[in-house]
Design goal:
By secondary structure, this protein is of the alpha+beta class. Helix content is 49%, strand content 15%. It has a six-stranded antiparallel beta sheet with strand order 1-2-3-4-6-5. A hairpin with an 8-residue loop joins strand 5 (96-97) and strand 6. It is elongated and about 65 Å long. It starts with a helix and ends in an 8-residue tail after the last helix.
Length: 210
């Protein structure tokens, strides 16, 4: 029996003593990206007393109805995303931001079964802390007031319809547009970006929406 077969056999024996969700079984079986890593990670999560189900099309783990972590398959890694990761101490320095527009979520990346095994104790400790955060009802504070890049503000002041459409977007979508527009170094480039996406904003769509 090879190393991977031994890991799988051991994991299957561990799962027999846990409450598993058949939908997650199916998800892992049909995965073509990181099935082995998920197979090893799964009993670690269940062993922390979490309940598993499929939410947003992915294996999601909760405690007393509160979402704690979700498993995300990406091209270059398997991620375990903590919904309130920004509130964890991250003593091991393994949590990563999802992007400049994400304030609360943080994730741990894995690229191998060995990587999952190496961080197993860290994952358990972080989940325990995340459960404490959830039970205490802690939340990331409100975002700082959004200061719009000058070219966007000028364009909105000139076009009441565009201003109304922009203000009707979710706070996250407004921040993402503002980040993108402000990323251009020259004023002319920033203005061009605003103009390019004006129609999309009028349609009520976010920067990543199609």
């Amino acid at each position: 029996m090879g190393a991977q077969q031994r890991i799988t056999a051991c994991t299957e024996r561990t799962l027999m003593a846990m409450v598993v969700n058949p939908e997650v079984d199916t998800y892992i079986q049909e995965s073509e990206q990181w099935p082995e890593e998920m197979t090893y990670l799964r009993p670690i999560l269940l062993g922390c007393g979490l309940t598993e189900e499929i939410k947003w099309g992915k294996p999601c783990y909760s405690h007393d109805g509160k979402n704690i972590v979700i498993v995300q398959e990406m091209k270059d890694s398997l991620a375990l995303m903590f919904f309130k990761g920004a509130l964890l101490n991250d003593a091991e320095g393994v949590l990563e931001e999802q992007g400049p527009n994400s304030r609360s979520a943080r994730r741990i990346r894995f690229t191998s079964v060995e990587g999952v095994a190496r961080l197993a104790d860290t994952v358990k400790a972080y989940i325990k802390e995340a459960i404490d955060v959830a039970e205490a009802g802690l939340d990331v504070g409100p975002p700082p007031e959004l200061v719009l890049v000058e070219e966007l503000q000028e364009r909105l002041d000139q076009d009441p319809a565009l201003k109304a459409a922009f203000e009707s977007l979710t706070p996250g979508r407004r921040r993402e547009y503002n980040l993108y527009f402000s990323g251009a170094k020259q004023a002319s480039s920033r203005a061009a970006r605003v103009e390019k996406y004006a129609e999309k904003i009028l349609d009520g769509k976010g920067f990543r929406d199609r």
